[in-house]
Amino acid sequence: MAASSQNWKESDMAVYFDHRIATPGIEGSPSEIAWHCIHPLLAVASISTSSTPGGSVAVYLEQGEHIPNAHVEHPFQPGLISWHPSKRILAVGWQTGVVTFWSDHGWDEHQITGGTHQAEITILEWSSNGARLISADKAGVLMVWRVDHHGRIQGQPLGKHDYGKHLVHCIFKPPAPGEDLVQLAKAAVSGDENALDMFNWRKAGKGDAPFKVGLQEGIVCFVSTTDGTVYCVGEKGKSLQVLRTDGPIRKLMYMEEKEILMIVTEALLLSQHHIGPDGTSQELLKVKLSGKTGQAAEFIWAERDLLITVSDKAVVRLWDLDRNENYALTPDEHLGYRTRESINCISYCENKGILAAGTSKGQVVMWQRALVSGTGGHRLQGKNQWKLQAPIDLEGNIIQLKWGSSKNLLSVNTTGTVLILSEQMMSAHFNQQVAAIQVAPNQLSLVFFSSGIQLMLRTDIHVKGVYVTKDVVVVWNGKHISVFELFGPSLRNAGSFPCDCCVVAVHEESIYTVEPNRVQVRTLQGTVKQLLVFSEMEGNPCHLQICGNFLAVGTDKAHVKVFDLSRREAKPHSNSKNLAEYIPDLGSIMSLKCSSNGNNVSILIKKVNGSPDSRVFFYDVEMDTINHFDFEIGKPSSENCSMPRLEESNMEKARSEMHELMGRYPVSHFWDQNEPKLFVCEASLAASRKRQSNITASVETSSTGYKVDVMVITFFSTQEHGLLLQDSFPKMESHEALLGLEVPYYYFSKKSGETENDPESMPGSPSVPQMVARRPLRDFVGLEDCDKTTCDAMLNFSFYLTIGDMDEAFKSIKLIKSESVWENMARMCVKTRRLDVAKVCLGNMGHARGARALREAALEPELDARVAMLAVQLGMLEDAERLYRNCKRFDLLTKFYQASGQWEKAIENAEAFDRVHLRTTYYNYAKHLEAVGDQHLALSLYEKSDTHRFEVPRMLFEDLQALEIYINTTKDRGLWKWWAQYLESQADMDSALKYYEKAQDYLSLVRVHCYLGNIQKASEIANESGNQAASYHLARQYEAREDVKQAIHFYTRAQAYNNAIRLCKDSGLDDHLMNLALLSSPEDMMEAARYYEEKGLHMDRAVMLYHKSGHFSKAVELAFATQQFSALQLIAEELDENSDPALLSRCSDFFIEHGQFQKAVEMLITAKKYFEALQLCQQQNLIISEVTAEKMTVSKESKEFSHDFRRELLEQIADCCLRQGNYHLATKKYTQAGNKTKAMRALLKSGDTEKIVFFTGVSRQREIYIMAANYLQSLDWRKDPEIMKNIISFYTKGRALDLLAGFYDACAQVEIDEYQNYEKALGALTEAYKCLTKAKMRNQDEVEERLGQLQNKLTTVKKFVQIRRLHEEDPKEALKQCEILLAEPKLDQAVRTGDVYALLVEHHARQGNFEVAYKYMEEMAMKLPSGNITFYVNQQIIEAVYKTVGVPVKDNLAERVQQNSGDDGVEVEEEVAEEPYNDL
User: Fold this and answer.
1) CB within 8 Å of 875: residues ≥ 6 apart
2) Who's near 497: CB < 8 A, 6+ residues apart?
3) Going by DSSP bridges, is the β-strand pair 239-244/229-233 parallel, antiparallel, or unpaired?
4) Where are the beta strands (DSSP E) in 899-1016?
5) Which residues contact 295 (CB under 8 A, 6 or more apart)?
6) Would you say the pTM of this structure is higher than 0.90?
7) Cys-Cys with 690: which of 55, 685, 1169, 1229 at CB 3.0–4.6 Å?
8) How far, in Å, CA of 1480 to CA of 1478, rounded?
9) Residue 42 in 3-state DSSP?
10) Percent of the chain with pLDDT over 70
11) Whole-angstrom Cα distance, residue 297 to residue 250?
C-alpha cells in the first residue's frame, strides 16, 4: 500500500500485543500467510503434520479469532493464497491445480474446477483493480480470467498459453495515470470527499479535467519461467516474449516512476530493463548484489526507489537506486537483541515506515524510518534514516512476516503457529507524584517521586489502561480491573474483578467506571456503591478525569458534567453542558481535563469528518461560558480572553512566540494538580504544515525556517484575564509525551533506548527513572527544592509578570531574602527578556558590577544585546552568545569572545561577520599571547594586525639577535629602515647603508653619504632614484658648497623651483629662470615676470609669465605698451565672461582696428555687449551661426538683464537671421522671444512642411493655425491626404470657418473638374455650407451673399446627381430633367454644361439614336468655349456617332478647334481663372 505521506517521525509510545490464532482443532504447520490489503483478514495455509497427507486454509480476524465458515481441508496441500485487492474474496491454489475461492458466503470450489490446470498452481495474482486474475501452474499453462464487479470469475478464460515450462513469478504493471471510474464512483457514493472532489471539475483542477480516464488499472503483467525467460501478457490474454536472463529468476519488480522492469536472478544479479510498447527490451543496468549464491534470500521493493534484501543471515541490506548508495542494518545487542541470530525474513510497512525482520531465535527486529530529524529539521540520509526499536520477543523460529490490512497489523509465522501483532499505545499516567509507564504488554515501570521508590509491576493481563494515586495502582484490559496497593517498598494485589469498561478513574478509596448512561462508583474490590446517572439526551459517559476533589465526565453526545468528590458521595458541581450548542462542526470529545478547583474544564474535540480540531475549549463552570484557544491562528477567542500589557521591547518576542504556535493542533492537555490557574498543552504541527516544514528542511541546509514538530505551551487561565501565554518550548527529542504538570516540574515519558539520566535534571533532585523525565518550569530553574512559601511566591510573581502588573509581581516576592532566589529570578529574566525585573534582582543580589553594566548596555538599540549583557554578568555565557547572534551584533559578540578568552571563536567571528574589528582582534590576541609568553604566535598575529613594525621590535628589543633574525626573515622595508636607523645610532655606518639600501630609503642613503663626504656617490643615488627628498638634501649640500649649477639641477629634480629661481636671480641666469618659472607656481611666475619687467629686457617673457600666472590685465597692459600683438591674440583666446569688461573692450577694439571682426564679435559677446556685437555683424555682413546666436542669448534666470532686454535682443537676432536666410534659427529665436507669429512667418519662408505642422500643433494660436492652413493650400494637397487632413484641422482649430468653407468649395470644384465625381462634390459643398452657416464674419451681408451662391450651387449639383441616379431607373424622365437643367441660367457655375450634354449623348448613342446624339454633340460644341467635346464624351462614342451620320471624324474635330481658336480672350480668361485654383 502506498503511504499517504512519507514524512515519518519516530512512532508514538506504543507496544505490540501478540494474539495467537485460534486454530479450529486441526494438526498442521502453517506454510503461507496473507493479509487482505484493506480488511483485517488473515489467511493461513497449513500443511498437515499427521500421517494423513493434505492441507487446509483458514481465515482469521485481527485478534486471531477464527471465522467459522472460512475453513477448508483437502487431502492435498495448498500452494498459493491471494486476496482480491478490494473485495473480501480469497483465491487459493492447490497442489492438484484446483483454484478455490472464499467469500463471506463461504467456499466456492466451482469457479475454476479441477482439470483446468493439470499441475500445481504456481502463480495466482489479481490485477490491481481486481478486474483480472492470472493463474498458472508448474506445467507452464497460464490463463487470464475476467472478474466481474462481485469478484466472481466470468466463464472461459480470456487467454490461455502453454509455455511448456514451469512458471514461477508474475507481476502486474502498475496502472496508467488516471482513476478507475467504477471504484471512484463507489467511493463518491459512500461519502468520500476526495472522490467527490475528483468528480467536481471546478474543485479538482484549474481549468483542466479532474482526471484522465485511462485503462482501468494495470491489466498488463510480466511472467517468468524457471529458465529465465520473461513474457508480457496483454489485457486480452495475448503473450509475447520480451527478454531472457542468464539464469533462473528469483524476483520480479517494477519501478513505476521510470517504467523499468527489475529482475533478480538466482546468482544475485540485478538487472534493469525498459520494455517498449511493442515488447522490445533494453537493458539499462546490471549489477551483482552482495550475498552468497544458493542461499535463501528475500527481496522487497519499497518506496519506489528502495531495494531491501536479506541473504547472508546477519544483516539487512538496502540499496537506494535513486541516490545510488547502499548500506546495511544490524540489530544492536545493547537494546536486548540476542547474539548469533540470523535474519530469516523481512517485511516493510509503507504506511508507518517500519521495516520488520524475523530472526531464528524468535525475535522481531524493527527499524523506524525517519526522513527528517525531529529536532533540527534537517534531511536524514542513508543509514541515519533508520532507528532501531526495542525487540519483540516471541517463541520459535520465525520463517515469515507479513504487514497488512488498513490497521497495519503484522503476522508472524513461527512454523508451529501464527501470531498477530497489533500495535497498542503504551499506557501512561501521572498523578500525586506517582508516574506509571507501560514498558511491555503486561509490565509497568512505576516511580514514586515523593519517596524515590522505583518499581516494576508485572500483571497477568495485557494492560490497556493504568491509573495511579499515591496509594494504589489500577490497571485494566477492558474485561478485568486489577488493583495494587503500596505495601512498604513493594506492591501487593489488593483485588481483581471483572468489568467491561475501558475508561477508569480512581479517587482515594473509590474506583469510577462507565456503563451505558451512568458512571459506577466502586470500592477497590469492585463493589458498586453509587451510580451517577446520565439521561439518554446527555448520552453515555466515555471520558473520566479527576483532578483534586473533582471529577469531569464527558459523554458520547458531547455533554460535560463536573462532580464534587470531597464528600462521602459524589455530588454534582455543575449542570450538564451541551457543547454541540456552542461548537459548530463538533464530532465528538477526544479528551477532557478538570482544574484542581473544579471551575475550569479543558476539552479537545474531533470534527465531524474525524479530524482533530485545532482549538482547545475551556468550560468555565462558574460563569457557564465556553472559550477557546485556536492553535491554527495562534490566538485565543475574543470573548473573555485578554492580552497582557506588554512593553514595546517585548512585543517582538510575543509575536515570535505566537507565530511558533500557529499551524498546530493540540494532542494532550493537563491542569496543574494543585494550582487551578496553570494549564499546559502539547501541540503538534498540522499535517500540511508538517509536510511544508519537512520540505523546507530538506531543501535548506540551515534550519532557520523549520518549525519543531511538537511544542509544549503553558497558559494562565483566570476569569478576569482570560487565557494568557506563560511559556512555550519545543519538546525534547528524547521525550515521548507529556504526562502532566505539578509545580515545579513538567513530567514526560521518555523514548525507549534513551539515556537514563535526564539532561535537564538538576543536582540534588530525586533520581528520575529511565522511562520518566521531568523538566522544571521556566521560573523554577534552580528552585526545584524550594519550600512551599517560595514556590507560591514565585508562581504569583510569574502570573503577575505575565499579565504585566509589575507592582503586584514585586509585592509577591518582596519578602524573599534568599540571594539564590534572586539570582535564579535574574537568570529567568534572561529567558523572558524582562530587564526591568532584572534590575531589581541585581539590586537585591548586591551585584553592583552587573547593575552598572546593565545601565551602560541600555544605550544599545537591540533588546537582545542588552539582555546578552545581563547574561554575561550572570555567567550565562551560552545564552549571551546566542542572543548576540540573534540580534546580529557581531561586534559585541567579538568583544564577548575576547573577554571570555575564546580567542579562536573571536577570530572566526571577526573574519566572517565583523571584519571592521578583525585587525583589532588580531592585535588584542597578540597582546594576550605576549602576556602569557607565547611570543612566536604573537609575532604572526602582530603581522596580521599590521602592527608588527612597532610591536615586534618593542617585544624583541631585549633579544637583538632574535630581532635581527626576524627582520632579515620578514623582508619588510619598514623594519629594515628601523634597523638601519638603530645601526646608524650605534655608528655602524656600513651596515646602516646596507639596510637603508634594502629599505630603498634614498634620503637616508644620500644623507649618510654626504655625512661621510662621498658627495659623488650621493649624486649618483639621487639621479638614479629620482627621489625628491634626496635631491633636495643634496641640492642644499651643493648650495652650501656654492656649486650653483648642481644646486639648481637638484632643486629642479626635487621640484623645489622657488629655490632654483632664487639662485638663478641671484646668479643672473635669465635663460634658466624662464624655464623654471614656467614649471613653478603662479606666485613664482609673478616674481619672475616682475624681475624681467624691472630689468626692461625680455618683455615678451614678462608678458607670457603674467599671462600664465593668471594676471591677464597686467599681461594685456604690458602687451599694448610693448606692441606685442601676437601675445595679445593668445591672451584674448583665454578671456571669459569673468574677465575685466574694460579689458575685453580694449581687446575688441584692437581686433576691429586690425580687421579681425569675428574675434571682435566674440570679445563683445564675452563682455556681454550683445547689441554692439549684433550691430557689428550687420555692418560687416557676418553670418550668425547657431553657436554665436546661443552665446548672444541671455538666460531666462539672468538677474543682470531684464525680461524686456532679453526679448528685444532675441527679436533683433531673429531679424538678422531672417535677413541672412537662416529661417530655422530665426524661428527659434522668435519663439524664445515669445513672438510666435513672427516665428511662424519665418518658418513658412523655410518651406519645411513637417516643422510647420509640428510648430502649429505646439503653438495653438488661431492666427498661426490660419497661416499654416493657408500655406498648406499652396501645396499639392490633392495628392496627399495628410495635408488635406491638416488643412481642415487647422482651419477648424483656428475657428476660420469661412476659409474652411472656401476650401471645401475648392475641393468640390476639383472633384468636378478633375474626376467628374459629383457625389463627392456634393458632400464637399454640403460641408462648405455647414461651415459657412457657423462662420462669424463682420460683414453679415457678405455672409448672406456667399450662402446664397453656395445654396444655388449646392441645389444645382444635387439636381444633377439625382438625374444621374434617375437615369438608371427612368431614362426618359432623366432626359427631360437634363433638358430643363440646360435651360437654367449660370449652369456652369455649379455643373459643367459638357457633363450634362455628355449624359444625353451617351444615352442616345447607346440607344442607337445617333442622329439625336449628333445633334446634342453639335449643341455642346457650340456652347463649350473650347469646343473640345472629347474632354466630356468618350472618344469611341464620338467616332461611332460621326461614322453613323457620315461625317468624317478628323475633319469635324479640326473644324471645331479652328472655329474656337480665334477666341483667345476666352481661352486666356479661362486659364487665368483656373490658375488661382491650381495654385491652391
Assistant:
1) none
2) 480, 481, 525, 526
3) antiparallel
4) none
5) 311, 312, 313
6) no
7) 685
8) 5
9) strand
10) 80
11) 9
